Amino acid sequence: MPLKRHHKIIIGSFSSLVAIFMIVSSIFLYTLFMKETVDYANLNSKISKVEADTQSKMNDLSTSLLETEKELISLGSQIGSLDNELILLKASAGEDFSGIIEETIKSVATIRTDVSQGTGFIITDEGYVVTNAHVLSDATYAQVITYDQQTLTAELVGYDLDLDLALLKISGEHDSIRLDDSNEVQVGEKVIAIGNPLGLQFSVSQGIVSAVHRGGLNGLEAYIQTDAALNPGNSGGPLINTRGKVIGINNFKIGGGESLGFALESNYIIETINEISEAELEETLL
After folding, report:
1. Given 107, 164, 174, 266, which residue is catalytic?
2. Domain at 101-169: CATH code
3. Is 141 helix (H, G, I), strand (E, B) or coil?
C-alpha cells in the first residue's frame, strides 16, 4: 500500500531531524574533544614549566648547600687554626702546656732493645724515627712502641756515633713532629722534654733553656742546656718549644749536678739525618 503524502512528509521531517541531531552531536563532540586536547596540552605545558622551575630551584638549593658546606669547612679550619694559636699563646705565656703536649706526645715512642730502653720521636708520617745511637748500642734488635701501644719492629737506616744519632724506620702511617730552627732558640724560653725515664712511658718534664751552643764530649758547641728534668730513659726523646716543634734531642746530663741536661740542637739533627738517609728530608722535617 503506497504511503500517503502526509506520511512521506512526517518520515522526511524525522529523517532530517535525525540528520541534524547527528551533525550537531558530531560538532559538539568534536568541539569537546578539541577543548580537551587544548586543555591537556596546556596542562602538560604547565607541568613542564613546574618541573623545570622545581629542577632549577633544586639546583640552586644544591649549589647553596655546597657553598654552605665549604663555608662550614673553612670556618672549622679557621676555628682549628685559632684553637692552635690559642694553645701556643697560652703555652708561651706559661699558662698551660697541655695543648702542645696532647698534640706532640703522639709522635713520641719508646725504643726497646734486648739490652736497653730509651726514647725516640717520629719525624715523618711514613715512620722515620730518630733516637740516640747509644740507645741501640750492643743490641741485636730494636722495637718501637708507639703512643697508641703498637709494638713495631724497627729497621736501622743508619747512625752517626759522633753526634750520637740513629735513624730507624717502622711500617705504617704515624703522627709526626716537625723540627724547628735551633738558631732561633733563646735563653730563658720555656721547653718540655717527653720520654721514658726509668721505664715510666711518656713522662713529661718542663723547664727553660739555660744556655745554647754548649760544648759536648765530641768537641762541638752543638748542645742546648736545659733545666728540664732528664733521667735514664729520656735519651733520644725530643726537647720541644712552645710552638710544638723539636729544638733538640735529649742526649745526656751531668751527674752530681741538678737540672743540668743537654740536648743536641735540631739543626745538627736535620743535617745529620739527611746524610744518614741519603735523601732530602729537610722539607719534611721542618
Report:
1. 164
2. 2.40.10.10
3. coil
Say how many C-beta atoms besides its own lie within 10 A of residue 70's C-beta. Answer: 10
Q: Which is it for the CA torsion 69, 75, 77, 79, positive or negative? A: negative
pLDDT, tens digit (0-9, with 9 covering 90-100), for 211-236: 999 988 888 999 999 998 888 778 89
DSSP 181: -
Catalytic residue among 203, 205, 235, 266: 235
The three-class DSSP label of residue 173 is coil
Give the class (CATH, top level) of 182-285.
mainly beta
Q: How far apart are CA 223 and CA 214, in angstroms?
A: 5
**Which residue among 134, 180, 205, 210 is the active-site one?**
134
Q: Is the pLDDT of residue 78 over 80?
A: no
pTM, two decimals, is 0.66
What pLDDT is stored for residue 280 in this prediction?
47
How would you classify the pairing of strands 142-145 and 190-195? unpaired
Domain ranges across the chain: 1-95, 101-169, 182-285
Q: Is 164 considered catalytic here?
A: yes
Q: Which residue has the cell 715512620?
A: 127
Beta bridge partners of 248: 239, 265
Which residues are bridge partners to 192 per DSSP?
A: 206, 240
Report, in angstroms and rounded to the nearest whole number, the Rg of the chain calculated over CA atoms: 42
